[in-house]
Structure formats: C-alpha cells, structure tokens
Task: inverse folding
C-alpha cells in the first residue's frame, strides 16, 4: 500500500508550488507540532520554499500511522523527515530543527547528506543524561527515569512540571502554550517519544553529519545547557556556534525575532 506522506505528516508549504527557491524545512520538538514555527517560518517564505510538517503522533498527523516499533527510537522520526524530503523531492535543503529535532536532522543528514545544504540546530542535545567524567547532559539518569514515570502516570502533571522549564522563567505565556500542547498529545505516544528523546545518545552521530551546521544555543537553558551546545559545535566539523540572548529552551516562541535574525545572518554568510 502506498503511503500518502503529505497527509500522514500533515505537510504544509508556504510560497507558490513549483517555485525554484531553495527548500527550507522546519521540524518541531518533543510534545509540540509545526505551529511552534509560526512566528519564524513565514519570515523566510519570500526567499525559500518553506515546508512544515508534524511527526506521526503529533499535531495534525495521522495517528493511525503510529507504529511503536518504528518510533521507539529517533531513527523512526528521521525516517519521517526523509519521507517528507523524498515525497516533495527536496534537494539542497536548509533544515531547521528544534531540540530533539536537531538530532533527528543530524541522523537524516548523516544518512542522505546529498539532500541537505545546511543544518540549523536550535537548542540541540545529543544526550540529555550526564556521562561522567567528560560529558554533562544536564540530567542524572534517575531524574530522567522520574520524568518518564511521571508522564506515564500523570501526563497533565508532567506537562505542568516540564513546560515552565522549557519556556524559561521570563516566558509564562510560552509555558502555558507548551503545557497545552503536551496535554493534547496522546499520553501513550507522549511517553514513547519521551523515551526516544531523553534516553537516546547520539554523540557519535555528530561527526557523521558532514553538512555545514549552525548551533543556536540559548542562555540559561536547563534542558540543553550551554556546555552541551558547545559540545555539539566541537564535534561537528565545520559548524558555527551562536549564543542567543534568549533564555529557556524554545527561542522560536519566546524570542522569535532574535531567532529569525540569527538564522538569516547565518544563511546570508555562507
């Protein structure tokens, strides 16, 4: 049976169909959907063929297409991304991924580098747990286990706990939006995406993605601390690093103007 990827992943494009402009593909993070890019993506529609989508299990995607085996690891989400790229026959893609989607993009670019021109990694983390003595991801394993237990036992309580940490102290409106987004996601799917996100270790994959990249690091990000962004930069050959003044873990929502300007400056200087 042929899979209608554009429907399955709720693919939406900004700009005229068939445009010769280079494609720019935006990918959302854990517990969210493509709407998190609504303040940033339209700013690029005059110069790029902007494409947005939802991973299966999120937003307006086809929940009936969810497969626990496929989406038990980030590789399954990378397959979603590549399915969209192939369905639209996108080439020389500028990929913009937030949080866990930064690593999903790294996996996709490592697999099919010829499809990608640039990676923009917003608040990336290749591994959320501390691995002493040389790596501090921000969380001890028991803290991550506690988060996973909470999301399974009490999704709404999990949302109330995690959303303010992602948003940052200066953005209560963003925290409310994220809490609502977490609470709107199927709890079983949310738990499994949480496992794939927080228990993955993709540090070894960074060097395999031989595509030029920009690492956008937030200030006071408790989900992906500055040491993590610096680690990503050091281990991705040819990458650039830019520290945003934006606080928290979702600058496209809390500081969309600064986020847009940083991406635009990077693309103008390559």
Result:
């Amino acid at each position: 049976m042929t899979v209608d990827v554009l429907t399955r992943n709720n693919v939406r494009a900004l700009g005229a169909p068939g445009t010769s402009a280079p494609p720019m593909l935006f990918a959302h993070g854990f517990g969210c959907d493509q709407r998190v890019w609504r303040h940033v993506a339209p700013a690029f529609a005059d110069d790029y063929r902007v494409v947005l989508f939802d991973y299966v299990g999120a937003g307006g995607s086809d929940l009936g297409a969810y497969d626990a085996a496929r989406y038990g690891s980030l590789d399954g989400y990378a397959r979603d991304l590549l399915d969209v790229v192939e369905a639209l026959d996108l080439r020389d893609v500028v990929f913009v991924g937030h949080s866990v989607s930064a690593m999903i993009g790294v996996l996709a670019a490592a697999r099919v580098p010829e499809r990608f021109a640039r990676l923009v990694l917003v608040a990336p983390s290749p591994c959320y747990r501390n691995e002493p003595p040389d790596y501090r991801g921000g969380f001890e394993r028991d803290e991550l286990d506690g988060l996973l237990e909470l999301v399974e036992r009490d999704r709404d309580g999990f949302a109330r706990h995690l959303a303010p940490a992602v948003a940052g102290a200066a953005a209560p409106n963003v925290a409310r939006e994220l809490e609502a987004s977490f609470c709107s996601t199927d709890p079983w799917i949310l738990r499994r995406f949480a496992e794939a996100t927080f228990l993955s270790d993709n540090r070894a994959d960074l060097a395999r993605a031989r595509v030029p990249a920009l690492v956008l690091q937030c200030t006071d990000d408790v989900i992906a601390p500055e040491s993590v962004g610096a680690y990503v930069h050091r281990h991705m050959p040819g990458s650039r690093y830019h520290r945003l003044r934006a606080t928290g873990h979702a600058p496209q929502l809390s500081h969309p103007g600064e986020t847009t300007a940083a991406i635009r400056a990077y693309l103008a200087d390559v």
Q: What stands out?
A: The first strand starts at residue 12 and ends at 14.
